[in-house]
Amino acid sequence: MSITLNSGFKMPAIGLGVLDMEKDEIRDLMLGSIKIGYRHFDCAADYQNEAELGKALAEAVRTGLVKREELFITTKLWNSDHGHVIEACKDSLKKLQLDYLDLYLIHFPVATKHTGVGTTASALDDEGVLEIDTTITLETTWRAMEELVSMGLVRSIGISNYDIFLTRDCLAYSKVKPAVNQIETHPYFQRDSLVKFCQKHGICVTAHTPLGGAVANTEWFGSISCLADPVLKGLAEKYKKTVAQVVLRWGIQRNTVVIPKSTKVKRLEENFQVFDFKLADEDMALIKSIDRGQRNNQPTKFWGINPFA
Hints:
Shape: globular
Oligomer: single chain
Organism: Eucalyptus grandis (Flooded gum)
Helix content: 25-40%
Radius of gyration: 19 Å
Protein name: NADP-dependent oxidoreductase domain-containing protein
Strand order of the largest sheet: 3-4-5-6-7-8-9-10
Distance between the termini: 36 Å
GO molecular function: aldose reductase (NADPH) activity; aldose-6-phosphate reductase (NADPH) activity
Strand content: 5-15%
Family: Belongs to the aldo/keto reductase family.
Structural class: alpha/beta
CATH class: Alpha Beta
Largest sheet: 8 strands, parallel
Order of helices and strands: EEEHEHEHEHEHEHEHHHEHHH
Keywords: NADP, Oxidoreductase
CATH architecture: Alpha-Beta Barrel
């Protein structure tokens, strides 16, 4: 199952996020996930594992496990490289051992002090607050993203963590429209207005943190996981599925792309098994009723400022 982007390319409706994958585990996880059926992989320069991912992808293609054209590879421009978009993209391509990217995203709508291409550091001032570069506009960054398309380095370009107003601005000044807006959205943070706005204007929404981040976000930010919600547990029993499968199916039925992450083979298999059932309309409405407006991914903890304020 896939969604056709406004660029004309097809994006698989479920992918695998590679954040926090240990470098020594990546080869087996990537090859194993391809065997399960995953073809869409969501990467980022900031995850600092592109080189290891590249080796695994190259092996998968070289051994005939998968063809390059069957894969959909996304990676992202880090905040400190807004003034060095082309160099940053080429650096990611080199590490991933690819000739082109299927999708390249602006990771966050903020330019920060440059720390060297590929280093993805977050420079902080003496008070521990992110050093924002006020000389680089988001329009300037987008113009460079568009150049990547004309150069043939990237097939589709998009944005990430943009709200309605920043998305509207991007639509206003773009010559190549953003194909995707990747945002946090899950049953406790549904963001219907933003999702509907993007879809109305032909922008595909990809849900990062589609399961709410579960244990990791609970440990980092003290957030409450939607996977323990009694409503979702009840639906899991009704459909004889795991709670995670119900949540991912909900995301797909919203016409969003979901990119759960896991380092456990059993979970990788379970997360991919969401195409053999469909949630009834009343159950979709039931899930809509449990929205808490709860953002779980909070970079404020690391940057000293709230980028979503």
